[in-house]
Write a structure and sequence with these properties.
This protein is α/β, with parallel strands linked by helices and 164 residues long. It is built from 6 helices and 4 strands, in the order βαβααβαβαα. It has one domain: Rossmann fold (3-Layer(aba) Sandwich).
């Protein structure tokens, strides 16, 4: 961003356990949705993992890469996970934090940087309840279903997200 460009109006952070599939899928799908509406310069979208086993640079799931590629989204070579325990500034900077599960919402309580932030599950964003289940260690069809559920929820909740 150049010096004359305004700072992003909104900062959205997706959170899941390891940041190797669900939150990466959500980040990339939302970035594309925003770009298609000409809003990519006004909204910054990031993602990170919150679990004890989340690590900076962990490899993105190959299945997550495959199901994103199927819808025309290619992850750059070397793209890796972000550990929010080490990258707490992302929590501080976020206007809205979207989690995949209620457990992750509870885990955020251990992070003072998330206090007072708008936090909701991806399903809540779409006016629903429930979690987006972790597809890890399952077949590609489960990853496709996860991608499609995330995409549907983001499409239903996009206006709400931008207004939050």
């Amino acid at each position: 961003m150049s010096a004359q460009d305004p700072a992003p109006k909104r900062r959205i952070l997706f959170v899941c356990h390891a940041n190797t599939s669900r939150s990466i899928i959500a980040e990339k799908v939302l970035q594309r949705m925003l770009a298609e509406q000409g809003l990519d310069g006004r909204v910054e979208v990031r993602s990170g993992g919150i679990a004890p086993f989340a690590r900076d640079g962990s490899l993105v799931s190959l299945d997550a890469r495959f199901v994103l590629r199927e819808v025309g989204i290619d992850l750059p070579q070397g793209a890796g996970a972000t550990d929010l325990k080490r990258q707490r500034h992302l929590l501080s900077a976020a206007d809205v934090i979207l989690v995949m599960t209620e457990e992750q919402r509870r885990m955020l309580a251990a992070f003072p940087e998330a206090e007072g932030k708008t936090v909701m599950t991806v399903r809540e964003l779409a006016g629903e309840s429930g979690d987006i289940a972790d597809p890890a260690m399952q077949d590609e069809d489960v990853f496709r279903h996860t991608r499609d559920e995330i995409t549907r929820c983001l499409a239903h909740g996009l206006a709400r997200l931008l207004a939050a």
